[in-house]
């Protein structure tokens, strides 16, 4: 997770939408009300940060799965600003667009690394993604048809895509409604602060705290990220 400024607007008249695999959309009348009723601490968070514009962070992000994963790999462990800069350099090498898998594999790894400002590891990860797409072991066109667990399994088979990255893909790109990335530092910090914990919660503890948020754990995470003025990309 990278830090970024989010507007805090207490006007709750705008709908908050979170979409799942089935295409069912939960509005603020359903999901926000359910979260407020399920957890008094989260209710206080929602009241403090508001609901307007929770999806604004998606503005300008790639619209297709392949480009989303390229951007995710290129921006790993970087601030949002640095990630955007690296991704822009990468696109610039290919005429301002994401490279096709064949183009990535045909490119000289060292020349690509230098031109885009990538690490050796990230070049390997991008090439692994391209290989998995080309050989069909990662079928990007049908990821949205799969349950969350199967999407994660397909993605983590690619070098450089771990559980956290796969969960961010579910949240940011596929808009899955019930994802709780228990290893996310931002979520852990927000829960520690808001729930008065003496230290960052361990994954099992965070999962237990988040159990009442089902089936809207993604939305709960958006509120918690917002409480830190942060965005999940």
Task: Provide the fold topology.
Elements: E1 2-3, E2 18-19, E3 25-26, H1 28-38, H2 40-49, H3 65-74, H4 80-93, H5 101-106, H6 109-116, H7 120-134, H8 148-156, H9 163-173, H10 185-194, H11 203-210, H12 217-227, E4 230-231
Antiparallel strand pairs: 1-4, 2-3
Notes on the structure:
With 233 residues, this protein is mostly helical. The protein folds into two domains: 2-58 and 178-231, Endonuclease Iii, domain 2 (Orthogonal Bundle), CATH 1.10.1670.40; 65-145, Endonuclease III, domain 1 (Orthogonal Bundle), CATH 1.10.340.30. Helices cover 53% and strands 3% of the residues. Helix 8 packs across helix 9.
The CATH architecture of the largest domain: Orthogonal Bundle
Mean pLDDT: 88
Residues in helix, %:
40-55%
Rg from C-alpha positions? 18 Å
Structural class: mainly alpha
CATH class of the largest domain: Mainly Alpha
Low-pLDDT runs: 1-27
- Number of domains in the coordinates? 2
List keywords for this structure.
Endonuclease Iii, domain 2; 12 helices; 4 strands; 2 domains; 233 residues; 53% helix; mainly alpha; Endonuclease III, domain 1
Summarize the structure.
The protein has helices at residues 28-38, 40-49, 65-74, 80-93, 101-106, 109-116, 120-134, 148-156, 163-173, 185-194, 203-210, 217-227, and strands at residues 2-3, 18-19, 25-26, 230-231. With 233 residues, it is mainly alpha-helical.
